[in-house]
Structure formats: structure tokens, C-alpha cells
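Suppose a colleague, Dr. K., hands you the sequence of a protein chain of 494 amino acids and asks what its three-dimensional shape might be. Before reaching for any lab equipment, you can write down a predicted structure in C-alpha cell form. Begin with the sequence itself:
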Amino acid sequence: MNNNNHLAQKLIKKYDSLSISQIQQDIEKIVQSFSMKPWISQEYIFDKINYKNKQYLLDLNKIIRKDDKLQLKITKNSAAKKYWNTILPFSYRVNDVINNNYKFPLRIAIFPGVSCMFYCGFCGRNQKAKYETSIIDDGINKINNIISDAKPGTKISISGGLEPLTNPKLGSIIKKGYDLGFKIPLITNAYSLTEGYIKKNPEIWLLDSLRVSLYGYDNESYKEITQLDKSFKIVKRNVINFLKSRNKINKNLKVGFNFIILSENYKNLIDVLKLIKEINLEVKNGEGINFLTLRDDYQSVTGRDENFDKERKYRFNGGMGEDERKNLLKIIENFENLRLQYCPKLHVDYGYSLEYLSQKIFDRGLVKIKGEKIRSYGFPQLSVAIDLHGDIFLFREAGFLNRQGNEKVIIGRLDDKKNSLEKNIKNFLNQKKPIKFEENDSRFLDSFDHVLNALVNQAEEDEKFGIPLNSGPIAFKNFDLKESIGNNWYSDDI
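The predicted structure, expressed as C-alpha cells, is then:
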């Protein structure tokens, strides 16, 4: 508390009924609250402080907002830092979302995959659906037009949807983005990351980063998730060969794994680390795996009623319970110790809720938005997803071909230049036809979508309470559009 003494001194004359200690306590309450839960409301804070006066809360917020050390404590050095990494660059757009003002999206997720060879039990895709190969050329043209229209600083990523490498002309998209100055990350299962595919799509070497979805640590564990025999052997071989070639062609291309923590696999986290060590030892001409992202299962599929996503043959039971998360906390502690021993250069990104566990803070999981709390117009000013048809999805987990119920969040379809992304979004907003969401529609939002939704909801609630976002405790800024906004998996920087 003593560290806040000089800050409390600034208010003691104005609020002489309060003691220095009480003002210190209130400053600390606000700092700690936002260090743990960035989406907390001003009304909640108001109920917790010693003096129930809005001007007093505004003054506290201003003091915290102007103090660089406290800003760093909240946004960079707290358990919630991964949330803040997402929130900060998007905050200046929230009023546009609330007021349904058109803005070109800050992030665009491109889903160019034609099909997928895996049948993962936590994936939300319709396991029977795939795109007709006859639409590939048209789909590529639509996607490249979007990239051409994108504003400087827009974050464009390639993922799925379905597996991106099932598109034989993926390189065209990467080349278009690269030529226009965009840093493009790619998420893939790497099953098709063969030398033959790369020869046909050498533009892959122009990527900023490549993240491989890792589904296990040996043949058995991989098959359990993917339902495809020998998938582990093939992926491991492809990754090793890719790393060796990367070190010759483009050393700046960062390569990493993503591992989703499930009830079925959380005990094997150390085995993932051992696998990375093994792969790195095989890559003798330079660096191996650069980063590992660890993610919670946000239960887009797992734990859902069987009436939803009925087209699925394979699914897992549900997310981790409280006891499992407590066990995971212990495993992560051991993991960190071994990481320094096995892979000291490996950057580990724990994502949103797992960051709490990595700092030995027990947490029950991700922020979740459900039912009527889902934005009725989404937030296309912040983020959209585009598939091979040119369909525009408000949320990323909706972007699977023919996923049950996802038609409600398709807000338009691209048609070359005649019906651009801008036209589609403007038309959707101007129609003023809000989407009515149900409880289970939260399955259409990935963890990133949940965070953005929480941010906008918070800003709207605070505005109604009389303390708008720019009068809160966080020093939001208008980010230079040239700055990166997310998908920087290999660093803690925004």
C-alpha cells in the first residue's frame, strides 16, 4: 500500500472525510481488480470502494490512468496480461461497435481450406461437409480482393474452418498479402505440409509464422484425437523437414505448435515438451521449434447438448473440472522447470486463462459470453471470418461449412468487386435487423471472440453507468494502424 501513498495524497484534500489509508485501499482495489478481470464493470468497482461517489471513482481512475507504473502492473505484468494484449488495440473501436458505425475490420480470418482429413473430437466442423473443388479459383479471387481492399494495419490470418493446406492454390493468398506488406500467420495441422506441396506453393516461405496444431505426442495419442492412423508419424516428419528447409530459406519465419488442453490429455503436457526437444535435436542446421501456444478448450463442441452439431461422429465429453484444473496447475509448474532445461529458447504462450495457472493462480477458465449477452450485430468493425465461398461470418467458430445453425451469423457473401466486404458489412448494419442469440450459440465464438464481446459489453455497461471507457482506469490509446494487433504467438508484445 505504501507505494500508493503519493497518489493518495493527491486526493486527501478533496475528500477530507477519507483517510490516506482508505484512498490507498481503493487505488489498490481497482488495480488488483483489473489485473485479474479486465472486463469488470465500473458499477462493480463503485460498490467496492470506501466512498460511494462517482466523482471520487472518476478521480481514482484518472490517477491510475496517469500513472505509468500502475498501467504496466495491470496490462503487462499481471495474470490477465494475455487478455490485455487482445483488448488494448481494439478498445478505440468499441464505440463504433456500440453505435453500429461502419469500420473496415481490424482482423480478418481467412478460411481457404477445402476439406479436412482429421476428425478431432473438440472441433466444431460438420464432419460430412467439404467444398467443391470447382469453386477454388473463384474463392481465391474473392479472398485476394479482400486482401487488396484491406487497410494498413489490418491483421490477416489464414486458418480454418477446414485444413488450409487442402487448397492447392494457397500460395496465391500468401503472396498477395506479402506483396501488400501484411505479415501473414498460418495455422495448419501440417499433415499435407510435404515437400511436394511446398514445391507447388513456395510462397509458404513468405509467411510471418506457421503454427501447427499438435494433437498428441505419439502415434496412439494422435490417433485418439484425429481418428487417423499414422497421422503423428506424418506430421512429425513434415515438421522436421520444414524446419530444416526454413533454416536455409527464411530464418525469420517462426514455427511453433499449438496444444489444446483437454481432460483427455492435460496429464501429458510434459510429453509435449519432450517431443519438442526430440524434434529440435533432429534439426541440426539451426533453430527448431520457436514457440508453443497452450490453449483451454473453450467448449465449442465439448460439453454441448447432443442436439447441437448432430452431423458429428466424434466428440469428447467435456471441459476440465475444478479438480483437474488444480492438478494442471501443478503440472504447469513442473512444465516450466523442465522447459528451462529442455528448451530454454522456447517461447510459451499460455493464452488467456492458462496464464493465471502459469503464475500459480487458480482460475476456473475462460471468460464466456452466452445467450442475450452475445452482441446482436456482432462486432464486424473488429473481426470477421471469410470462407472459400466468400461467406462472411461474424464469429470464427461459426466459419465451418454447413455447421448446424451457423446461417444466422453469415452476414453476406462476396461477389468479386460487385459485392465487397465493405458493402456487405454496411448493408448488414444498415438493415438494423438484430440477430437473436440463444444460450448455445456461444459455440460459434472462439476465445478471441468471447474477449472482444466482453470488452464491448463492458464499455456499454460503463457508459450507461456514467463512466465511459476513456474515463476508466486504463490508458487506452489510438493504436497506430501500422502496429500489429494479435497473432504474435512468438512474443509477449502486442
